[in-house]
Write a structure and sequence with these properties.
The protein is mainly α. It is 53% helix and 7% strand. It contains five helices and two strands.
């Protein structure tokens, strides 16, 4: 699999743009709506957003960025932050770290294998780095799609998610 550093930078920018839109969409949403079970895999809007934040921190740790490994496992990932404001602040910080990591990345860094212990499977894993990086961004998109559906379900305007409509780099957070 060929993955380039330029593509990773594009995905990091897309991730930050999407999350900034979610922050704006959630600005006036009550904690009740954020924590109501909407039937998604992780139940709630906030729980789903927390899970993605947790996973991003975990992958950044695995990629050797110096990000601390989350102390709790996947089962506790939905409780990472207690409010939309706390999630927003943590999300902004992690998006900044993803962006900095992507800016420093060289295409050569995306070759070879990554080995780690998976708490979810209870075993040692080895996969190509390029597949793991692709998975991190795909995981974000997958769960943001669930958040999009939950926002729509409660009658809120969900963000534009189409990559082709992302503003130019100068206009993106």
């Amino acid at each position: 699999m060929l993955l380039t550093a330029d593509h990773v930078r594009l995905m990091a920018r897309y991730n930050a743009w999407q999350n900034a839109q979610i922050v704006r969409a959630l600005d006036q949403v009550s904690l009740g709506v954020l924590t109501e079970d909407h039937g998604a895999h992780f139940g709630t809007i906030l729980g789903t957003l927390n899970h993605v934040l947790w996973a991003d921190r975990l992958w950044l740790h695995r990629f050797g960025t110096g990000e601390p490994c989350p102390e709790d496992g996947i089962g506790e990932s939905t409780a990472l932050t207690a409010t939309g404001a706390a999630w927003s602040a943590a999300r902004f910080a992690v998006d900044g770290r993803i962006t900095l990591w992507a800016k420093r990345l060289r295409s050569l860094d995306l070759t070879g294998d990554l080995a780690w212990y998976s708490g979810a499977t209870g075993m040692e894993m080895t996969r190509p780095v390029a597949v793991c990086v692709t998975h991190m961004f795909n995981h974000q998109t997958h769960h943001r799609g669930q958040v999009h559906a939950m926002l729509t379900r409660v009658g809120l305007d969900a963000p534009v998610t189409d990559l082709v409509f992302m503003p130019s780099e100068e206009a993106t957070p």
